[in-house]
Design goal:
Blueprint lengths: L7 H31 L6 E2 L5 E2 L10 E6 L20 H15 L2 H14 L3 E5 L8 H14 L5 E4 L19 H4 L20 E5 L2 E5 L17 H16 L3 E5 L18 H11 L3 E4 L6 E7 L2 E7 L15 E10 L2 E12 L4 E12 L5
Parallel strand pairs: 3-4, 4-5, 7-8, 8-9, 9-11
Antiparallel strand pairs: 1-2, 3-12, 6-7, 10-11, 12-13, 13-14
Helix pairs in contact: 6-7
Bound molecules: fe (ii) ion (2 copies).
The site of one fe (ii) ion has 7 residues, from loops.
């Protein structure tokens, strides 16, 4: 029978290694605990690429800056377009583009806006639809390039507009390209990542103290119509999201392409279930609703059960503008907690044709109420 005797020096080495391992484990545990406390009990998570990412919304900052732009109307119609792609409602959009719209939307204006964003450096960017003109796959690809130039999906949030759903399209060659820019932080129980753009909405993305709630009002409509609707399923889920985020005292921003309330736009371009949406916004409360679609700046307010909410519409991001009113603009929101509620400073940046650059046009201060927990 053989007895293996471990040499004393090896015992010392193994004991040292064991002690060091225990000490390293303790340090790692402490660091994780500290990290967890610092980040308000949220845990680091793996990104889709497998990288460990810090949950961005948990690092509290004093001021959060958000850029709002909309309605690029990128078109591939200046290049080659297949006749078979136009054998539906698109033929009317094509004719309209050739007659009028091609002079209303210029890629160089959008390029100037993207340059300006490099200087204003917002924490986050939201794009409220109509990135494309006729929902052609080539336009979706072009829009994806623009989104990538603006930043990573965690920095940019997109919702569709009626032109992105101009006709019924194949998901894989269109909206799938934008999914990372549209999806919620966490899958929603309503069926996230389904093969239908309607089913991934409403979306919820939380950045610092801001809850970005994305709605999809885009759907194909009749030839001379540009209407949209949210639908019962999205409204049902929206009510729950607004209640949850209100309880957490987050600054709730609803993103929707169509102006949200009755009377804000012509009958031909309206949201058909605006009354039902208004009831939920007023009942659960919301701080801000951002929209596009009208291609002009607008602002309004309405009363909710927790105080007054603001609506803000933004001009097209690519319009040189026949008149100053129709000129390209984007908005920068500076948000922070105020002893009396939320402080919101809105800076409007407008395109200047002579200099081909964007510059500040106005700055407005608002104080909005904060819901009590
Ligand atoms: Fe538009
Ligand atoms: Fe639109």
């Amino acid at each position: 029978m053989r007895i293996n005797v471990v040499p004393p020096c090896l015992v010392t080495i193994m004991s040292t290694l064991f002690t060091k391992r225990k000490s390293l484990e303790r340090m790692a545990k402490n660091e994780l605990l500290l990290y967890s406390r610092l980040t308000n009990s949220a845990k680091p998570r793996l990104s889709k690429t497998g990288d460990l990412t810090e949950p961005e919304h948990t690092v509290m900052k004093k001021t959060f800056t958000l850029a709002h732009l909309s309605d690029f109307h990128l078109s591939s119609l200046e290049k080659k377009v297949k006749v078979q792609d136009l054998l539906n409602k698109r033929i009317f959009g094509y004719l309209k583009w050739q007659l009028r719209r091609r002079s209303e939307h210029k890629p160089e204006v959008l390029e100037a806006l993207l340059c300006d964003l490099q200087m204003t450096k917002p924490d986050h960017i939201v794009v409220t639809g109509d990135l494309t003109h006729l929902a052609l796959p080539a336009e979706f690809q072009e829009a994806k390039k623009i989104l990538l130039s603006m930043g990573a999906p965690r920095k940019v949030t997109v919702i569709p507009g009626n032109h992105d759903a101009y006709v019924k399209t194949d998901w894989n060659s269109t909206f799938r390209l934008w999914t990372d820019y549209m999806a919620s932080d966490q899958p929603r129980p309503s069926g996230q990542m389904d093969s239908d753009s309607h089913k991934i909405f409403p979306t919820l993305r939380i950045r610092d103290f801001v809850a970005l709630v994305g709605l999809n009002s885009a759907r194909p409509s009749g030839v001379f119509l540009a209407v949209g609707s949210v639908g019962k399923l999205q409204l049902h889920e929206l009510e729950k999201i607004l209640a949850e985020t209100g309880q957490r005292q987050l600054f709730r921003i609803v993103l929707i392409h169509h102006p949200p309330l009755p009377g804000m736009i012509s009958w031909r371009k309206r949201l058909t279930d605006d009354e039902a949406l208004g009831i939920i916004l007023k009942r659960q409360g919301v701080e801000l609703v951002l929209h596009g679609h009208a291609h002009r700046d607008s602002q309004g307010h309405f009363d909710t059960t927790v105080g007054q909410a603001r609506t803000m519409g933004v001009s097209s991001a690519s319009a040189p503008g026949r008149t100053r009113k129709r000129r390209a603009r984007y908005h920068i929101y500076r948000l922070k907690k105020d002893p009396h509620g939320w402080e919101m400073i809105v800076s409007v940046r407008c395109y200047s044709p002579p200099s081909e650059t964007f510059a500040e046009e106005s700055e407005t201060h608002f104080v909005l109420p904060r819901p009590t927990a």
